[in-house]
């Protein structure tokens, strides 16, 4: 690496890191939290016996899983204005990612709930709990433990997928790298640097996942 | 206290309970015996509506429920009945994410809306009663089968049920752990707890039962005092079942 490249690399560290912390991570966090709520709701509806809502939930999962995320983002950001709905890039991105997390994670949550033995429901009912109480106090806490690894996976994917928001003018880490590239003409350097930051963020998240799993392990026989 | 009249239950085309009639007074112990598949578990689960009978009348501690094809039982009635009954399962079914004490407190807090302090002191008292004061903070996976089952009994007692239901409470236990669980149940019997127990432990049944019911193929084949059923019954099918059991023991 010659001096000029090294200089560009060093000068880009802070802007990229800032974009990551101030834009990429918040987008991922907000979308994940909202998406998880949507996922639990979708999973519960799918496990319920309400026919119409169950059908709607299934339709929603089908649409989201069957179409590319980037296309969904384009529809929300570039398409909806034709229908009179103009959204800020951040809002558009949050909507797109929330819908995506909600659909994929609903399958994780649903499988986790189904994996809890029937005897747990029956024990809860036997002390007089309602279905809602059994779910909240007995089933979901155990399902949460089972779903930590796959949900952590989803979150890590999401952090990387937020780079798609660059396509709808949201200036997160990747778009910041694009902007610096436009003035420095060093695509290999800048995109590799951005990749390193994604790797760093995802590694930290994997570490957090391990901590979380250990915390839950208190009540699991090994 | 408990009364069942003409109770029927089918799973699809298979009729498992074919018209059961029973009466148990307050403070008495009913033991249900019978060959595998005769409907013992199904009958027991009808007492707290884990299974919904198709037809018949069930009365538990003053609550009368009439079952009929397609008639829905109100949610309140179901919940009310379940609060009057406690159940102990063959496989314990403790809540694995809670300590022993947490298991015993849970129903008191969630269902009975007791304060944490109140639930805690009653929980500790019950754990003491089943001989597990020192295990209050242990998680289920840290306990032996016998200890888990004793916690499960304390959990069932915690919501102050009128009736305790046991489905083969010692069948999943190693032989050396059976005694400690039976001892707790015997003690409850001596204190006048109303109980319905499905078991294959014949000696225990003979000791603890006020009424024994022998089920076979969805019917009650014989019922009466332990003496009447186990010693004096002339019914050849009863003798055959009892002989096979004593054959197993040798
Ligand atoms: N949920 C169910 N669905 C279909 N069939 C069932 C169900 N539960 C029980 N059965 C059937 O009903 C019959 C009675 O079962 P039940 O469990 O009441 O017998 P049991 O007397 O408790 O037997 P065991 O001594 O083996 O526990 C059996 O033929 C069983 O296969
Ligand atoms: Mg059984």
From TrEMBL, chain A:
InterPro entries noted in UniProt: AA_ABC_transptr_permease_3TM, ArtM/GltK/GlnP/TcyL/YhdX-like, MetI-like, MetI-like_sf
User: So where does this one cross the membrane?
Assistant: 20-47, 59-80
Gene3D superfamilies in alphabetical order:
MetI-like
Topological type in the membrane: Multi-pass membrane protein
Under Gene Ontology molecular function, one entry of this record is: L-cystine transmembrane transporter activity
Keywords (alphabetical) are: Amino-acid transport, Cell membrane, Membrane, Transmembrane, Transmembrane helix, Transport
The record ties this protein, via Pfam families, to: BPD_transp_1
- Where is this gene product found? Cell membrane
Q: Which GO terms describe its cellular component?
A: ATP-binding cassette (ABC) transporter complex
Domain ABC transmembrane type-1: from-to ranges: 21-209
Query: NCBIfam families recorded for this chain?
Result: HEQRo_perm_3TM
PANTHER family (UniProt xref) = L-CYSTINE TRANSPORT SYSTEM PERMEASE PROTEIN TCYL (PTHR30614:SF0), MEMBRANE COMPONENT OF AMINO ACID ABC TRANSPORTER (PTHR30614)
Family assignment? Answer: Belongs to the binding-protein-dependent transport system permease family.
Question: What name does this protein carry?
Answer: Cystine transport system permease protein
Which species? Paenibacillus typhae
Automatic annotation (TrEMBL), chain B:
Which cellular component terms (GO) are annotated to the entry? plasma membrane
The segment(s) forming the ABC transporter domain are: 2-242
Cross-referenced Gene3D superfamilies, in alphabetical order?
Answer: P-loop containing nucleotide triphosphate hydrolases (3.40.50.300)
Instruction: State what protein this is by name.
Output: Cystine transport system ATP-binding protein
Per the record, the major location class is membrane
Q: InterPro entries annotated for this entry?
A: AAA+_ATPase (IPR003593), ABC_ATPase_HisP-typ (IPR030679), ABC_transporter-like_ATP-bd (IPR003439), ABC_transporter-like_CS (IPR017871), MetN_ABC_transporter-like (IPR050086), P-loop_NTPase (IPR027417)
According to its record, how does it sit in the membrane? Answer: Peripheral membrane protein
Q: Where in the cell is it found?
A: Cell membrane
Q: Which PROSITE patterns match?
A: ABC_TRANSPORTER_1 (PS00211), ABC_TRANSPORTER_2 (PS50893)
- Keywords on this record? ATP-binding, Cell membrane, Membrane, Nucleotide-binding, Transport
Q: Which regions form coiled coils? A: none
Q: Is Cell membrane included in the keywords of this UniProt record? A: yes
Q: Which domain of life is it from?
A: Bacteria
**Molecular function GO labels:** ABC-type amino acid transporter activity; ATP binding; ATP hydrolysis activity
């Amino acid at each position: 690496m010659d001096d000029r490249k090294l200089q560009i690399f060093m000068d880009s560290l802070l802007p990229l890191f800032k974009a990551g912390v101030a834009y990429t991570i918040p987008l991922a966090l907000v979308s994940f939290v909202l998406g998880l709520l949507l996922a639990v709701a979708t999973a519960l509806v799918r496990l319920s016996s309400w026919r119409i809502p169950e059908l709607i939930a299934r339709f929603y999962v089908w649409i989201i899983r069957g179409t590319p995320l980037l296309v969904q983002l384009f529809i929300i950001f570039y398409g909806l204005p034709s229908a009179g709905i103009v959204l800020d890039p951040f809002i558009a991105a949050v909507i797109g990612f929330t819908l995506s997390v909600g659909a994929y994670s609903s399958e994780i949550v649903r499988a986790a709930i189904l994996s809890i033995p029937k005897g747990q429901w029956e024990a809860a009912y036997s002390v007089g709990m309602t279905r809602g109480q059994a779910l909240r106090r007995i089933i979901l806490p155990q399902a949460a433990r089972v779903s930590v690894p796959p949900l952590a996976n989803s979150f890590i994917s999401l952090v990387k997928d937020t780079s798609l928001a660059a396509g709808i003018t949201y200036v997160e880490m990747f778009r910041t790298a694009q902007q610096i590239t436009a003035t420095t003409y060093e695509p290999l350097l800048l995109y590799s640097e951005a990749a390193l930051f994604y790797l760093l963020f995802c590694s930290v998240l994997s570490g957090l996942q391990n901590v979380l799993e250990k915390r839950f392990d208190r009540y699991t026989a090994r | 206290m408990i009364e069942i009249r003409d109770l029927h239950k089918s799973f699809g085309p298979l009729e498992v309970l074919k018209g059961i009639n029973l009466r148990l007074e307050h403070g008495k112990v009913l033991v249900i015996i019978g060959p595998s598949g005769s409907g013992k578990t199904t009958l027991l689960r009808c007492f707290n509506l884990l299974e919904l009978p198709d037809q018949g009348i069930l009365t538990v501690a003053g609550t009368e429920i009439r079952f009929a094809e397609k008639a829905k039982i109100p949610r309140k009635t179901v919940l009310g009945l379940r609060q009057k009954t406690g159940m102990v399962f063959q496989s314990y079914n403790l809540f694995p994410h809670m300590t022993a004490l947490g298991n015993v407190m849970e129903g008191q807090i969630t269902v009975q809306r007791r304060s944490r302090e109140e639930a805690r002191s009653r929980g500790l008292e019950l754990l003491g009663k089943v001989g597990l004061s020192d295990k209050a903070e242990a998680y289920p996976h840290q306990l032996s089968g016998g200890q888990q089952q004793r916690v499960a009994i304390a959990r069932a007692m915690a919501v102050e049920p009128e009736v305790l239901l046991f489905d083969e409470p010692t069948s999943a236990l190693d032989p050396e752990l059976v005694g400690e669980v039976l001892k707790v149940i015997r003690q409850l019997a001596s204190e006048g707890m109303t109980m319905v127990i499905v078991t294959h432990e014949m000696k225990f049944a003979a000791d603890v039962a006020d009424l024994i019911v022998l089920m076979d193929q969805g019917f009650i084949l014989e019922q009466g005092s332990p003496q009447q059923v186990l010693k004096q019954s002339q019914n050849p099918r009863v003798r055959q079942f009892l002989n096979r059991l004593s054959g197993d023991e040798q």
